[in-house]
Amino acid sequence: MEEPPRDLRNALSEFRRAIAQGPAGGGGSGTGGSGGKGGGISVSGLTPSGFGVGNLWFDSRDYDWTPYEMQIYWAILRAWYVRLYAMTELFEKWAFARGDWMIDHQNQVRFTILRTGEIVDIAIEAPADCPPLDESSADALREVVLPPLPSDSPRPAETVHVRFLVRGDIHHMRNDPLLRSAYYGR
Hints:
The chain has helices spanning about 5-20, 65-85, 90-100, 130-145, 175-185; strands at about 50-60, 100-115, 120-125, 155-170. The chain has one domain (about 5-20, about 35-185). It is built from five helices and four strands. A hairpin with a 4-residue loop joins strand 2 (about 100-115) and strand 3.
């Protein structure tokens, strides 16, 4: 596999540190990944750029999803960054129509991963009140390539829930180094 561009590696390192540190003042929302028993990765902080995927959790609680979670987390995040960059113009039109370039939205999406890694049954569970955010997150899940479920997973498919979070000034999306690196590094 080709090495990612240096600025993407740096951005991912910063993102990992932000996840490990959590938000200022500690705490978090949702269930954490304690023990990896389907609880999921709890992410309440955002990257410095204002985009993040958090609260990834699996319906099954009788299997340790931790290693697989980390694999799909980064794949989903990268796919979403590609979609965000590709859809920058839609976000700009949405902001212009609202007369407000600041965004602070999140949504929750449910999807099912088949044993092969194929994603099916994508559904927005909690819309963002920002159509481009809902569209970009669903599109990312349609386009992402995931590894197959672990060979010892107990079921032939697994339902997963994920939050997509965005906060900041839409004017900066087009020049965001994380989004640009993901898009051009495809």
